[in-house]
Amino acid sequence: MSDPVVIRGRDFVKYRIGGAIAAILLGLALIWQVYEIFDGDARTIPEVRWGAAIFNGRAMAPQDEPSSILAAQALAARTTFQAERYQTGPSPEADRPNYSVVPDTYMITAPMDYGEEFTQSWAQLSGESGAMLRAPQRIVGISSLPYPGAALFERPFARDWRLGMADIATHLGALAILGMGFVLALVLAIRGRVPIAHGRSPRTVKRFGLWERATHWMTSISFIGLALTGLVIAFGKTLFLPFGEPTLGAVGWISTWGHVMFFPSFALGIVLMAVMWSHRNLPDRGDLNWLRVAGGFFSDGGPTPPAKKFNAGQKLVFWSAVLGGLLMVASGVTLMFPFYWADIGTLSWAMLAHAVLGLLLIAIFVAHIYIGTVGMQGAFWAMWSGRVDRNWAEEHHSVWLEQIEARDGKDST
Ligand code: HEM
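That is the input. Now the predicted structure with protoporphyrin IX containing FE docked in place:
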Protein backbone atom coordinates (compact mmCIF):
# COMPACT_ATOMS: atom_id res chain seq x y z
CA MET A 1 0.00 0.00 0.00
CA SER A 2 1.35 3.47 -0.83
CA ASP A 3 1.84 6.17 1.80
CA PRO A 4 -1.43 7.24 3.27
CA VAL A 5 -2.65 10.38 1.57
CA VAL A 6 -6.14 10.80 2.82
CA ILE A 7 -8.51 11.65 0.03
CA ARG A 8 -11.73 13.13 1.27
CA GLY A 9 -14.80 13.33 -0.92
CA ARG A 10 -16.44 16.65 -1.73
CA ASP A 11 -19.30 15.62 0.53
CA PHE A 12 -17.06 15.55 3.61
CA VAL A 13 -18.31 18.87 5.01
CA LYS A 14 -21.92 18.05 4.18
CA TYR A 15 -21.74 14.86 6.22
CA ARG A 16 -20.25 16.74 9.17
CA ILE A 17 -22.95 19.41 9.08
CA GLY A 18 -25.59 16.68 8.85
CA GLY A 19 -24.01 14.97 11.85
CA ALA A 20 -24.05 18.20 13.85
CA ILE A 21 -27.75 18.81 13.13
CA ALA A 22 -28.61 15.20 14.02
CA ALA A 23 -26.54 15.49 17.24
CA ILE A 24 -28.49 18.59 18.30
CA LEU A 25 -31.88 16.96 17.62
CA LEU A 26 -30.92 13.70 19.32
CA GLY A 27 -29.40 15.63 22.25
CA LEU A 28 -32.75 17.40 22.75
CA ALA A 29 -34.57 14.06 22.56
CA LEU A 30 -32.17 12.69 25.19
CA ILE A 31 -32.87 15.62 27.52
CA TRP A 32 -36.61 15.02 27.08
CA GLN A 33 -36.12 11.34 27.87
CA VAL A 34 -34.17 12.12 31.05
CA TYR A 35 -36.99 14.49 32.08
CA GLU A 36 -39.50 11.65 31.45
CA ILE A 37 -37.60 9.41 33.84
CA PHE A 38 -38.05 11.82 36.70
CA ASP A 39 -41.49 13.30 36.04
CA GLY A 40 -43.06 10.41 37.97
CA ASP A 41 -46.00 9.58 35.69
CA ALA A 42 -44.96 6.05 34.71
CA ARG A 43 -47.49 4.49 37.02
CA THR A 44 -50.44 2.25 36.49
CA ILE A 45 -53.55 3.97 37.74
CA PRO A 46 -56.80 1.97 37.74
CA GLU A 47 -59.20 3.12 35.06
CA VAL A 48 -62.23 1.11 36.12
CA ARG A 49 -65.48 3.01 36.33
CA TRP A 50 -68.60 2.04 38.25
CA GLY A 51 -71.70 3.66 39.60
CA ALA A 52 -75.28 4.47 38.84
CA ALA A 53 -76.68 7.68 37.48
CA ILE A 54 -79.99 6.96 39.20
CA PHE A 55 -80.01 6.43 42.96
CA ASN A 56 -83.23 5.84 44.91
CA GLY A 57 -85.19 6.87 41.85
CA ARG A 58 -83.39 10.21 41.66
CA ALA A 59 -80.93 11.28 38.99
CA MET A 60 -77.62 12.17 40.59
CA ALA A 61 -74.26 13.38 39.55
CA PRO A 62 -72.16 10.22 39.77
CA GLN A 63 -69.70 11.74 42.21
CA ASP A 64 -72.55 12.40 44.71
CA GLU A 65 -73.85 8.88 44.55
CA PRO A 66 -72.90 6.92 47.69
CA SER A 67 -71.69 3.73 45.99
CA SER A 68 -69.46 5.79 43.68
CA ILE A 69 -67.84 7.46 46.64
CA LEU A 70 -67.32 4.10 48.31
CA ALA A 71 -65.92 2.71 45.10
CA ALA A 72 -63.57 5.63 44.69
CA GLN A 73 -62.35 5.21 48.25
CA ALA A 74 -61.80 1.51 47.69
CA LEU A 75 -59.89 2.23 44.50
CA ALA A 76 -57.83 4.84 46.28
CA ALA A 77 -56.90 2.26 48.89
CA ARG A 78 -56.01 -0.25 46.23
CA THR A 79 -53.87 2.26 44.37
CA THR A 80 -52.08 2.96 47.60
CA PHE A 81 -51.41 -0.70 48.13
CA GLN A 82 -50.11 -1.01 44.58
CA ALA A 83 -47.54 1.68 45.18
CA GLU A 84 -43.98 0.83 46.02
CA ARG A 85 -43.45 0.19 49.72
CA TYR A 86 -40.71 2.80 49.89
CA GLN A 87 -43.29 5.40 48.88
CA THR A 88 -46.10 4.35 51.19
CA GLY A 89 -44.02 3.42 54.21
CA PRO A 90 -44.82 0.42 56.42
CA SER A 91 -48.37 1.64 56.98
CA PRO A 92 -49.85 2.68 53.64
CA GLU A 93 -53.01 4.09 55.18
CA ALA A 94 -51.03 6.65 57.13
CA ASP A 95 -49.14 8.14 54.25
CA ARG A 96 -50.72 8.07 50.82
CA PRO A 97 -48.70 8.88 47.76
CA ASN A 98 -50.09 11.90 45.98
CA TYR A 99 -51.14 10.00 42.86
CA SER A 100 -53.73 7.81 44.54
CA VAL A 101 -57.22 8.01 43.07
CA VAL A 102 -58.85 10.93 44.80
CA PRO A 103 -62.49 10.92 45.99
CA ASP A 104 -63.74 12.88 42.97
CA THR A 105 -62.67 10.00 40.74
CA TYR A 106 -65.86 8.02 40.37
CA MET A 107 -66.94 4.97 38.47
CA ILE A 108 -69.93 4.74 36.18
CA THR A 109 -71.89 1.98 34.56
CA ALA A 110 -74.70 2.50 32.12
CA PRO A 111 -77.66 0.09 32.46
CA MET A 112 -77.06 -2.83 30.14
CA ASP A 113 -79.45 -3.82 27.36
CA TYR A 114 -80.56 -7.48 27.68
CA GLY A 115 -78.40 -7.80 30.77
CA GLU A 116 -80.47 -10.59 32.21
CA GLU A 117 -80.25 -12.87 29.18
CA PHE A 118 -76.56 -12.20 29.04
CA THR A 119 -76.07 -13.30 32.64
CA GLN A 120 -78.14 -16.39 32.05
CA SER A 121 -76.09 -17.41 29.03
CA TRP A 122 -73.01 -17.19 31.18
CA ALA A 123 -74.58 -19.17 33.95
CA GLN A 124 -74.95 -22.22 31.74
CA LEU A 125 -71.73 -24.15 32.01
CA SER A 126 -71.14 -25.23 28.45
CA GLY A 127 -68.56 -24.83 25.72
CA GLU A 128 -66.13 -21.95 26.00
CA SER A 129 -68.00 -20.08 28.71
CA GLY A 130 -67.84 -23.20 30.85
CA ALA A 131 -64.08 -23.35 30.51
CA MET A 132 -63.84 -19.69 31.45
CA LEU A 133 -65.95 -20.13 34.54
CA ARG A 134 -64.04 -23.14 35.86
CA ALA A 135 -62.21 -22.31 39.06
CA PRO A 136 -58.64 -21.31 38.20
CA GLN A 137 -55.71 -22.57 40.21
CA ARG A 138 -54.99 -19.45 42.15
CA ILE A 139 -54.77 -18.39 45.73
CA VAL A 140 -58.13 -16.77 46.36
CA GLY A 141 -59.06 -14.53 49.25
CA ILE A 142 -61.91 -12.29 50.23
CA SER A 143 -62.11 -8.86 48.70
CA SER A 144 -64.47 -6.06 49.53
CA LEU A 145 -63.37 -4.11 46.48
CA PRO A 146 -66.10 -3.18 44.04
CA TYR A 147 -65.01 -4.91 40.82
CA PRO A 148 -64.42 -8.60 40.28
CA GLY A 149 -60.81 -8.34 39.04
CA ALA A 150 -59.79 -6.88 42.37
CA ALA A 151 -60.45 -10.20 44.06
CA LEU A 152 -57.45 -11.64 42.26
CA PHE A 153 -54.71 -10.91 44.75
CA GLU A 154 -51.62 -9.34 43.34
CA ARG A 155 -48.54 -11.54 43.11
CA PRO A 156 -45.65 -9.87 44.92
CA PHE A 157 -43.45 -10.39 41.85
CA ALA A 158 -45.98 -8.55 39.71
CA ARG A 159 -45.04 -5.34 41.50
CA ASP A 160 -41.36 -5.71 40.56
CA TRP A 161 -42.39 -6.80 37.09
CA ARG A 162 -44.50 -3.69 36.58
CA LEU A 163 -41.66 -1.51 37.77
CA GLY A 164 -39.28 -3.38 35.44
CA MET A 165 -41.52 -2.94 32.40
CA ALA A 166 -42.93 0.53 32.98
CA ASP A 167 -39.83 2.18 34.37
CA ILE A 168 -36.61 0.29 33.83
CA ALA A 169 -37.03 -1.38 30.44
CA THR A 170 -38.74 1.47 28.63
CA HIS A 171 -36.65 4.29 30.07
CA LEU A 172 -33.29 2.58 29.82
CA GLY A 173 -34.17 1.31 26.35
CA ALA A 174 -35.01 4.81 25.16
CA LEU A 175 -31.79 6.09 26.74
CA ALA A 176 -29.77 3.38 24.99
CA ILE A 177 -31.27 4.04 21.55
CA LEU A 178 -31.24 7.83 21.73
CA GLY A 179 -27.80 7.76 23.40
CA MET A 180 -26.37 5.57 20.65
CA GLY A 181 -27.84 7.85 17.98
CA PHE A 182 -26.45 10.92 19.75
CA VAL A 183 -22.92 9.48 20.07
CA LEU A 184 -22.88 8.40 16.41
CA ALA A 185 -24.13 11.80 15.24
CA LEU A 186 -21.42 13.44 17.36
CA VAL A 187 -18.76 11.18 15.83
CA LEU A 188 -20.00 12.13 12.35
CA ALA A 189 -19.97 15.84 13.25
CA ILE A 190 -16.48 15.81 14.76
CA ARG A 191 -14.66 13.13 12.84
CA GLY A 192 -16.64 12.99 9.63
CA ARG A 193 -17.20 9.94 7.49
CA VAL A 194 -14.47 7.26 7.54
CA PRO A 195 -12.99 7.78 4.08
CA ILE A 196 -11.30 5.30 1.76
CA ALA A 197 -7.93 6.74 2.78
CA HIS A 198 -6.26 6.11 -0.59
CA GLY A 199 -9.23 7.16 -2.64
CA ARG A 200 -11.25 4.98 -4.96
CA SER A 201 -9.47 2.24 -6.86
CA PRO A 202 -10.44 1.40 -10.43
CA ARG A 203 -10.77 -2.23 -9.33
CA THR A 204 -13.43 -3.95 -7.26
CA VAL A 205 -13.40 -7.23 -5.36
CA LYS A 206 -16.26 -9.69 -4.91
CA ARG A 207 -17.28 -9.78 -1.23
CA PHE A 208 -20.75 -11.29 -0.82
CA GLY A 209 -22.67 -13.67 -3.10
CA LEU A 210 -26.34 -13.35 -4.01
CA TRP A 211 -27.44 -15.85 -1.40
CA GLU A 212 -25.61 -13.99 1.37
CA ARG A 213 -27.04 -10.64 0.31
CA ALA A 214 -30.59 -11.99 -0.05
CA THR A 215 -30.36 -13.49 3.44
CA HIS A 216 -28.95 -10.25 4.86
CA TRP A 217 -31.70 -8.09 3.39
CA MET A 218 -34.51 -10.47 4.31
CA THR A 219 -33.26 -10.53 7.90
CA SER A 220 -32.61 -6.83 8.13
CA ILE A 221 -35.95 -5.79 6.62
CA SER A 222 -37.68 -8.15 9.06
CA PHE A 223 -35.61 -6.78 11.94
CA ILE A 224 -36.47 -3.20 11.03
CA GLY A 225 -40.16 -4.16 10.80
CA LEU A 226 -39.98 -5.84 14.20
CA ALA A 227 -38.07 -2.90 15.67
CA LEU A 228 -40.50 -0.22 14.45
CA THR A 229 -43.61 -2.15 15.50
CA GLY A 230 -41.93 -3.09 18.81
CA LEU A 231 -41.13 0.56 19.47
CA VAL A 232 -44.81 1.41 18.93
CA ILE A 233 -45.77 -1.33 21.40
CA ALA A 234 -43.30 0.04 23.97
CA PHE A 235 -43.62 3.79 23.43
CA GLY A 236 -46.80 4.17 21.32
CA LYS A 237 -48.77 6.04 23.96
CA THR A 238 -46.06 8.68 24.41
CA LEU A 239 -45.39 9.02 20.69
CA PHE A 240 -48.87 8.81 19.17
CA LEU A 241 -51.42 9.90 21.79
CA PRO A 242 -50.62 13.58 21.00
CA PHE A 243 -52.06 12.87 17.51
CA GLY A 244 -55.35 11.64 18.99
CA GLU A 245 -56.75 8.34 20.20
CA PRO A 246 -57.88 7.13 16.73
CA THR A 247 -54.30 7.55 15.46
CA LEU A 248 -52.89 5.69 18.45
CA GLY A 249 -55.51 2.96 17.97
CA ALA A 250 -54.73 2.54 14.26
CA VAL A 251 -50.95 2.56 14.66
CA GLY A 252 -51.22 0.25 17.67
CA TRP A 253 -53.42 -2.21 15.81
CA ILE A 254 -51.12 -2.36 12.79
CA SER A 255 -48.07 -2.73 15.02
CA THR A 256 -49.49 -5.49 17.18
CA TRP A 257 -50.28 -7.61 14.13
CA GLY A 258 -47.23 -6.50 12.16
CA HIS A 259 -44.92 -7.46 14.99
CA VAL A 260 -46.06 -11.07 14.76
CA MET A 261 -45.99 -11.07 10.93
CA PHE A 262 -42.33 -10.05 10.65
CA PHE A 263 -41.21 -12.80 13.00
CA PRO A 264 -41.05 -15.89 10.68
CA SER A 265 -38.75 -14.29 8.07
CA PHE A 266 -36.55 -12.88 10.85
CA ALA A 267 -36.24 -16.27 12.55
CA LEU A 268 -35.42 -17.97 9.24
CA GLY A 269 -32.84 -15.27 8.38
CA ILE A 270 -31.08 -15.64 11.73
CA VAL A 271 -30.76 -19.40 11.25
CA LEU A 272 -29.44 -18.97 7.67
CA MET A 273 -26.92 -16.33 8.81
CA ALA A 274 -25.74 -18.65 11.57
CA VAL A 275 -25.21 -21.46 9.06
CA MET A 276 -23.47 -19.21 6.48
CA TRP A 277 -21.23 -17.07 8.64
CA SER A 278 -20.62 -18.70 12.06
CA HIS A 279 -17.31 -20.30 11.06
CA ARG A 280 -15.98 -16.93 9.86
CA ASN A 281 -16.95 -15.23 13.12
CA LEU A 282 -15.09 -17.38 15.63
CA PRO A 283 -12.84 -15.21 17.81
CA ASP A 284 -9.09 -15.18 17.09
CA ARG A 285 -6.00 -13.35 18.36
CA GLY A 286 -6.20 -10.53 15.84
CA ASP A 287 -9.54 -9.48 17.34
CA LEU A 288 -7.99 -8.15 20.55
CA ASN A 289 -5.57 -6.06 18.58
CA TRP A 290 -8.41 -4.75 16.41
CA LEU A 291 -10.51 -3.86 19.47
CA ARG A 292 -7.56 -2.15 21.21
CA VAL A 293 -7.28 0.43 18.43
CA ALA A 294 -11.04 0.47 17.70
CA GLY A 295 -10.38 -0.71 14.17
CA GLY A 296 -8.29 2.38 13.46
CA PHE A 297 -11.52 4.29 12.76
CA PHE A 298 -10.42 7.35 14.64
CA SER A 299 -7.22 7.98 12.71
CA ASP A 300 -7.51 8.71 9.00
CA GLY A 301 -4.83 7.04 7.00
CA GLY A 302 -3.21 5.58 10.10
CA PRO A 303 -2.51 1.87 10.15
CA THR A 304 -5.75 -0.12 10.21
CA PRO A 305 -5.36 -3.44 12.00
CA PRO A 306 -5.27 -6.44 9.67
CA ALA A 307 -8.53 -8.35 9.56
CA LYS A 308 -9.93 -11.43 7.88
CA LYS A 309 -13.33 -11.40 6.19
CA PHE A 310 -14.97 -10.15 9.39
CA ASN A 311 -13.18 -7.90 11.89
CA ALA A 312 -13.78 -7.99 15.66
CA GLY A 313 -16.46 -5.28 15.51
CA GLN A 314 -18.37 -7.23 12.86
CA LYS A 315 -18.04 -10.41 14.90
CA LEU A 316 -19.71 -8.64 17.81
CA VAL A 317 -22.49 -7.50 15.48
CA PHE A 318 -22.84 -11.02 14.09
CA TRP A 319 -23.12 -12.71 17.49
CA SER A 320 -25.54 -10.04 18.73
CA ALA A 321 -27.72 -10.80 15.72
CA VAL A 322 -27.52 -14.58 16.06
CA LEU A 323 -27.58 -15.08 19.84
CA GLY A 324 -29.69 -12.01 20.58
CA GLY A 325 -32.00 -12.91 17.68
CA LEU A 326 -32.46 -16.49 18.90
CA LEU A 327 -33.27 -15.30 22.44
CA MET A 328 -35.77 -12.81 21.00
CA VAL A 329 -37.40 -15.56 18.94
CA ALA A 330 -37.52 -17.96 21.93
CA SER A 331 -39.01 -15.38 24.30
CA GLY A 332 -41.33 -14.05 21.57
CA VAL A 333 -42.74 -17.47 20.71
CA THR A 334 -43.26 -18.15 24.41
CA LEU A 335 -45.32 -14.95 24.62
CA MET A 336 -47.27 -15.83 21.46
CA PHE A 337 -48.52 -19.02 23.12
CA PRO A 338 -49.17 -18.01 26.71
CA PHE A 339 -49.51 -20.86 29.22
CA TYR A 340 -48.74 -23.57 26.65
CA TRP A 341 -45.38 -24.44 28.18
CA ALA A 342 -44.69 -21.48 30.46
CA ASP A 343 -46.40 -20.56 33.71
CA ILE A 344 -47.08 -16.98 34.73
CA GLY A 345 -43.65 -16.57 36.38
CA THR A 346 -41.80 -17.70 33.25
CA LEU A 347 -44.06 -15.55 31.06
CA SER A 348 -43.28 -12.49 33.17
CA TRP A 349 -39.55 -13.09 32.81
CA ALA A 350 -39.93 -13.78 29.08
CA MET A 351 -41.69 -10.44 28.64
CA LEU A 352 -39.07 -8.52 30.60
CA ALA A 353 -36.20 -10.21 28.75
CA HIS A 354 -37.91 -9.64 25.38
CA ALA A 355 -38.35 -5.94 26.10
CA VAL A 356 -34.85 -5.27 27.50
CA LEU A 357 -32.99 -7.33 24.90
CA GLY A 358 -35.08 -6.00 22.03
CA LEU A 359 -34.31 -2.39 22.93
CA LEU A 360 -30.59 -3.13 23.35
CA LEU A 361 -30.47 -4.91 19.99
CA ILE A 362 -32.10 -1.91 18.34
CA ALA A 363 -29.37 0.32 19.83
CA ILE A 364 -26.65 -2.05 18.54
CA PHE A 365 -28.15 -2.20 15.04
CA VAL A 366 -28.51 1.57 14.87
CA ALA A 367 -24.69 1.55 15.06
CA HIS A 368 -24.41 -1.21 12.43
CA ILE A 369 -26.72 0.60 10.02
CA TYR A 370 -24.78 3.84 10.61
CA ILE A 371 -21.44 2.23 9.68
CA GLY A 372 -22.97 0.40 6.73
CA THR A 373 -24.36 3.65 5.26
CA VAL A 374 -23.20 7.17 6.19
CA GLY A 375 -20.47 6.21 8.66
CA MET A 376 -18.00 4.60 6.25
CA GLN A 377 -17.33 5.35 2.62
CA GLY A 378 -17.55 2.27 0.42
CA ALA A 379 -19.12 -0.16 2.92
CA PHE A 380 -22.68 -0.18 1.59
CA TRP A 381 -21.75 -1.67 -1.79
CA ALA A 382 -20.55 -4.88 -0.13
CA MET A 383 -24.16 -5.73 0.69
CA TRP A 384 -25.78 -4.02 -2.31
CA SER A 385 -23.87 -5.13 -5.40
CA GLY A 386 -21.72 -7.69 -3.58
CA ARG A 387 -18.48 -6.01 -4.77
CA VAL A 388 -16.25 -3.57 -2.89
CA ASP A 389 -13.56 -1.11 -3.86
CA ARG A 390 -10.15 -2.82 -3.71
CA ASN A 391 -8.60 0.01 -1.65
CA TRP A 392 -11.45 -0.30 0.84
CA ALA A 393 -10.81 -4.04 1.10
CA GLU A 394 -7.07 -3.44 1.60
CA GLU A 395 -7.69 -0.87 4.31
CA HIS A 396 -10.27 -2.81 6.31
CA HIS A 397 -9.81 -6.50 5.52
CA SER A 398 -6.20 -6.90 4.40
CA VAL A 399 -5.83 -10.56 5.41
CA TRP A 400 -9.02 -11.50 3.58
CA LEU A 401 -7.92 -9.60 0.45
CA GLU A 402 -4.56 -11.40 0.45
CA GLN A 403 -6.34 -14.72 0.81
CA ILE A 404 -8.71 -14.24 -2.10
CA GLU A 405 -6.04 -12.74 -4.33
CA ALA A 406 -3.74 -15.68 -3.55
CA ARG A 407 -6.61 -18.02 -4.37
CA ASP A 408 -8.06 -16.34 -7.45
CA GLY A 409 -5.06 -14.37 -8.71
CA LYS A 410 -4.74 -10.59 -8.54
CA ASP A 411 -6.16 -10.00 -11.97
CA SER A 412 -9.37 -11.83 -11.28
CA THR A 413 -10.74 -8.76 -9.46
C1 HEM B 1 -30.54 -0.59 6.44
C2 HEM B 1 -30.02 -1.50 7.21
C3 HEM B 1 -28.70 -2.19 7.01
C4 HEM B 1 -27.63 -1.87 6.22
C5 HEM B 1 -27.47 -0.69 5.30
C6 HEM B 1 -26.64 -2.90 6.42
C7 HEM B 1 -25.43 -2.94 5.79
C8 HEM B 1 -24.51 -3.96 5.91
C9 HEM B 1 -23.26 -4.03 5.21
C10 HEM B 1 -22.77 -3.00 4.21
C11 HEM B 1 -22.64 -5.16 5.61
C12 HEM B 1 -21.31 -5.70 5.09
C13 HEM B 1 -20.15 -5.15 5.81
C14 HEM B 1 -18.89 -5.66 5.17
O1 HEM B 1 -18.76 -5.70 3.97
O2 HEM B 1 -17.98 -6.02 5.90
C15 HEM B 1 -23.49 -5.82 6.57
C16 HEM B 1 -23.19 -6.99 7.21
C17 HEM B 1 -23.98 -7.59 8.15
N1 HEM B 1 -25.25 -7.18 8.53
FE1 HEM B 1 -26.17 -5.51 7.92
N2 HEM B 1 -27.13 -3.79 7.33
C18 HEM B 1 -28.38 -3.40 7.72
C19 HEM B 1 -29.21 -4.00 8.64
C20 HEM B 1 -28.88 -5.16 9.30
C21 HEM B 1 -29.69 -5.77 10.31
C22 HEM B 1 -31.00 -5.18 10.81
C23 HEM B 1 -29.05 -6.90 10.71
C24 HEM B 1 -29.46 -7.94 11.73
C25 HEM B 1 -30.56 -8.26 12.10
C26 HEM B 1 -27.82 -6.99 9.99
C27 HEM B 1 -26.90 -7.99 10.16
C28 HEM B 1 -25.68 -8.04 9.51
C29 HEM B 1 -24.67 -9.03 9.79
C30 HEM B 1 -24.77 -10.15 10.82
C31 HEM B 1 -23.60 -8.75 8.93
C32 HEM B 1 -22.26 -9.50 8.88
C33 HEM B 1 -21.36 -9.01 9.96
C34 HEM B 1 -21.01 -7.56 9.77
O3 HEM B 1 -20.57 -7.18 8.69
O4 HEM B 1 -21.18 -6.81 10.74
N3 HEM B 1 -27.75 -5.92 9.14
N4 HEM B 1 -24.62 -5.07 6.74
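The longest helix spans residues 156-191.
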